[in-house]
Amino acid sequence: MKRRDALRSLLGFAAASPLYAVDDDVNTPVNIHEFEAAAKRKMHKLAYDFIAGGVEDELTLRANRAAYERVVMVPRFMRDVSNVSTAVELLGMKLDSPIIIAPTGGKNLVMPRADEVVAQAALSSKTLICSATGVQKILDDGKPLLWWSNTIGLADKKATQGYARRVEDGGGKGIVVTVDNAYQSNRDRNNRNKFDYGYMTSGVPKPGEEQAPRSPARAAAWLPHTPGMTWETVDWLKSGATVPVILKGILSPEDAAMAVQRGADAIVVSNHGGRQLDGAIATLDALPDVVDAVGGKIPVLMDGGLRRGTDILKALAFGAKAVLVGRAPLWGLGAFGQPGVERVLWMLTAELRLAMGLAGQTTVAGIPRKLAKRV
Ligand SMILES: Cc1cc2nc3c(=O)[nH]c(=O)nc-3n(C[C@H](O)[C@H](O)[C@H](O)COP(=O)(O)O)c2cc1C
Questions:
Q1: Reported pTM
Q2: Could you report the per-residue pLDDT of 217-233, keeping only the tens digit for each?
Q3: Which residue's CA is minimally distant from atom 5 of ligand 1?
Q4: Where do the domains of the chain lie, and which CATH numbers do they carry?
Q5: Is 225 one of the annotated active-site residues of the chain?
Q6: Cβ of 270 less than 6 Å from ligand 1
Q7: Distance 33 CA to ligand 1 centre (A)
Q8: H or E, element range at 269
Q9: What is the DSSP code (8-state) at residue 351?
Q10: CB-side exposure of 145: number of CA atoms within 13 Å?
Q11: What is the pLDDT of residues 228-253, one digit of tens each?
């Protein structure tokens, strides 16, 4: 080999090596998968595994993504698609995009005060955020943050109604009750990594730093969260709250019909991003039957595995009025902080808009069911 060729091959090897300085710019990732790769490079393994992982064999985690591959679209052409709008009206709000930030506990694993950073990104990109924490300062400053609170349920009627009042006084536009969190689930990655659920608030310990164990992950542990919660919680909320009550985690048509009957204002088809019951149905698979059961009486939202505008378009075609994204903004956060979250939200909406144009659709409300079908 000539010296020049040897040098060239050495340079090529170095450039491909992870040790070589990675092109570290918020505009470098060309899609959400590359944001994940960038976040993975920068994050502690415990934190990355906590966020990326699912429960047990991760069947549902994979099923969520695989479901999009089994659905194809049948686009329409020769329609004027010069103007495409991603705007939606949802529970009294006008949103520029049907993409909502899903509630994700443990953001501090990525960086300190991460909930506030993500809320700032939501504010600057005019995105509705669903979060249990991190929004108060922005709301106190009188900023126009679109915020839904999130709870896994409260002990009794008094506590529930008190909570509803605090959310409303704080400027919340809705209360999201997560219904699929009866127990701490059995997450192999966390169990194997000797993860401590206390890190979710304190962050992963720095090298040499000692932290007393608070809630160490253990295989098949029995850790109740809200095992006693029933439909009564919805009654309590509906009798006290003036803002919409949204149930997150519905997967069956029966529960969807019950949610309508008990007065829920919207539901989210969700399996917690494959993090609760392993083997639970993929959300895109569950969506059409749930939409049919609801029969247009309340909006049906969905989340799970959304990484592309085309994924979102399929969900909208199957009847979702809006979607939530959980991991995608966290990959933006882990890779580039607040600008990363903003870029991810922009990219998903931009991809959706383009996909709508290519599919012959100019409005979200006009997207027909028959645009997508299972193969
Ligand atoms: C790190 C992490 C933490 C989460 N914490 C919560 C939570 O506290 N409450 C909740 O209802 N859902 C929680 N979820 C589920 C998300 O709200 C959402 O349903 C899910 O992430 C959607 O799937 P995706 O991550 O593939 O977009 C969490 C998800 C992740 C990845």
A1: 0.94
A2: 999 999 999 999 999 99
A3: 104
A4: 34-374 (3.20.20.70)
A5: no
A6: yes
A7: 17
A8: strand 266-269
A9: H
A10: 28
A11: 999 999 999 999 899 999 999 999 99
